[in-house]
Design goal:
The protein has 24 helices and 20 strands. With about 625 residues, the chain is α+β, with helices and mostly antiparallel strands. The relative contact order is 0.10.
Length: about 625
């Protein structure tokens, strides 16, 4: 499939011992810094537009710098930021690096509190200004705030209106800049609250500063700010005095995991990353609950607190299908189940002719689903063998050998070869190159006789199918090409962190529009357009209907699949083509604990999702359909 972009990965580390402890036990005070690098590198799949890190020193003297940050753009950003950090140490001798008084007193990035972030932009905004962590600085450590997140908010305008209503003037209108101002404002109020209490107790000077830093409660800030947030998110924050938080959205849309022992606290977007980096078993890593936050105070003591009441549990299923690392125990099983549960519709598509069908996959993300598909096919073939043997117990040895010799014909037909270079801007040249993104293995298919089944993880825009995959597979001259998607038809935009937001991008939507035109049902489009305009006057916190559902309602999955084939099929293609999709029910059977399916069903978990899909339909009708 054409790669989707996903909104980011997070990593946090809090050392619970002095740097001298790690120097003595692990041979380096850089233990935390090194672990942060590994956490980020193991999550590089979650963000290649940029990366950043922030470090806080807990024991800086007044007047000395206490928060350090490094950010970079591009696919090599992780390497660049850590090269920049380690470059700070290159001029020091080994003796100086072992001098912890020097390290703790003067060396940048030698701290106890670490925050890392990997960015994928789904908003189209680029540049170092939009790379996390973002920092709101202050002369007071407790008022200094650095934040990062894996999220998309659907109601940024509402948050903007809220903070400007009290007189703030944000320099940027991106969601993260606005959140920084919102949270920073509440942090100021929390510090001022504690200042007044301390002052009333007769505290002055550094005594009142210590009083504030030891008692600051970041949960008060999140309880004030988070009720305005509509969307999927994991929010992380770190103050200059060493307090931190990680909060998950109340619908559980975006994931977060943590590990705690007496030496370290680790937070990341994915469980197996923590398992690998910390060398711990599955059961030692805990998933943050919806609406819950993990707080760590200045002394390194963790506490969990429910900030928002949990909503209908809708964790993102695309996390399981596509984005998260397949090395996670549960994700691996789920992806295999996606392929296994497609056995029957696949066999139906090839007329149950397994002897003349070759099975393969589109590299590389569909590989695990392919193994599950093979398990299902082998189970079916074994039943056929059993029935054949049982039906004729007196068969000859040769007949028995012939039955036992039957096998599922699995081959690696497509091989990922090159990445299309973005400097090719002329359309025809770019399309010609696209046909060479994959190589094929010649001789795997009997020309004109065999069917060819290939499984992919999803079909969203259909661009790669049309421009390269179908034409490349057709070079093998199969009788029929069956393209299997391990997830249902992607029909609706995602507004919680996946880069798919415009209706015209979805091949399933374009197929439905084509069917509507063929059958003279254009009045339905105008009717739903007017309904979307009516609903646009409702407030963003109000639940509204998703008007796009009615566009799909007149058609079966099979009708839309057949029309997708018509739209994607190259004119000179020789083979018959069929698309096979699972139903949403089959998806939930494979992934029972992650029920977020709005991109397939249109059932958005938050009010903002339905508002935005209606707006996307209005934009389509005004900008694309009526042209």
């Amino acid at each position: 499939m054409e790669p989707l972009k996903h909104e980011c990965g997070i990593a946090q580390i809090r050392l619970r011992k002095p740097l001298s402890y790690y120097q003595q036990k692990y041979g380096t005070w850089m233990y935390g810094l090194n672990k942060l690098y590994l956490l980020m590198e193991k999550q590089h799949n979650r963000g290649q537009d940029g990366a950043g890190l922030a470090v806080v020193k807990l024991n800086s003297k007044p007047g000395d710098e206490y928060l350090f940050r490094e950010r970079a753009l591009g696919a090599s950003a992780i390497k660049e930021i850590f090269d920049a950090v380690y470059h700070q140490f290159n001029s020091l001798t080994s003796e100086q690096l072992d001098d912890l008084d020097l390290v703790e007193g003067e060396l940048p990035f030698a701290g106890e509190c670490y925050m890392g972030h990997l960015r994928y932009s789904t908003t189209g905004k680029s540049g170092i200004t939009f790379v996390h962590p973002m920092t709101r600085r202050s002369n007071w450590r407790a008022k200094c705030l650095s934040i990062c997140g894996n999220f998309n908010l659907t109601n940024v305008d509402g948050v903007f209106d809220n903070i400007t209503a009290v007189g703030q003037h944000p320099r940027h209108v991106s969601d993260m800049h606005i959140l920084l101002e919102q949270l920073g404002h509440r942090l100021d109020r929390e510090v001022e609250r504690l200042y007044k209490v301390g002052y009333q107790h007769g505290l002055r000077g550094m005594d009142i500063t210590h009083y504030i830093e030891e008692r600051i409660d970041l949960s008060n800030i999140l309880k004030e700010c988070s009720p305005l947030w509509d969307g999927g998110y994991v929010m992380c924050g770190l103050t200059g005095s060493g307090e931190s938080y990680t909060m998950r959205d109340p619908w559980g849309i975006r994931p977060a995991f943590y590990y705690i022992d007496d030496e370290i606290i680790v937070v990341a977007s994915e469980r197996p990353v923590i398992q690998t980096v910390m060398n711990v078993t599955y059961d030692k890593v805990t998933e943050l609950k919806p609406g819950e936050a993990l707080f760590i105070n200045k002394d390194g003591e963790p506490r969990l607190k429910q900030i928002a009441d949990p909503k209908q549990f809708k964790p993102c299923s695309f996390e399981r299908i596509y984005f998260s690392r397949g090395s996670d125990r549960d994700i691996y099983k789920e992806r295999k189940a996606l392929g296994f549960n497609l056995t029957e519709p696949i066999l139906k598509a090839v007329g149950y002719d397994m002897d003349h069908t070759v099975f393969s996959f589109i590299p590389n993300t569909a590989e695990v689903a392919y193994y599950g598909m093979l398990e299902g096919l082998n189970a079916h073939l074994n039943e056929e063998k059993f029935d054949a043997i049982k039906a004729n117990p007196s068969m000859s040895d040769e007949e028995l050998k012939c039955i036992l010799a039957r096998k599922v014909r699995s081959e690696k037909v497509a091989i990922k070869d090159i990445k299309l270079r973005t400097f090719i801007s002329e359309a025809k040249s770019r399309n010609d190159l696209a046909t060479h993104v994959y190589d094929i293995t010649y001789g795997t298919v009997e020309r004109g006789v065999d069917n060819l089944v290939v499984i992919d993880d999803s079909i969203v825009r259909g661009t790669t199918l049309r421009q390269s995959i179908l034409s490349i597979l057709d070079r093998l001259t199969p009788k029929k090409i069956v393209v299997v998607s391990s997830c249902p038809q992607v029909r609706y935009p995602d507004y919680y962190g996946i880069d798919m937001s415009k209706m015209r991008e979805f091949i399933a939507f374009r197929a439905a529009i084509a069917l509507i035109k063929e059958r003279g049902m254009q009045a339905l489009l105008e009717q739903q357009y007017q309904r979307a305009l009516e609903l646009s006057n409702e407030g963003w916190s109000v639940e509204v209907e998703n008007v796009v559902k009615a566009i799909y309602a007149p058609f079966t999955i099979e009708e839309i699949s057949a029309k997708i084939v018509d739209l994607l099929r190259p004119e000179d293609l020789g083979a018959e083509v069929e698309l096979v999709y699972p139903s949403i029910e089959e998806l939930h059977k494979s992934i029972p604990n992650h029920l977020g399916d709005w991109y397939f069903s249109g059932d958005y978990p938050t009010p903002g999702g339905s508002h935005l899909v209606n707006k996307a339909f209005i934009d389509y009708m005004e900008q694309d359909y009526k042209k």
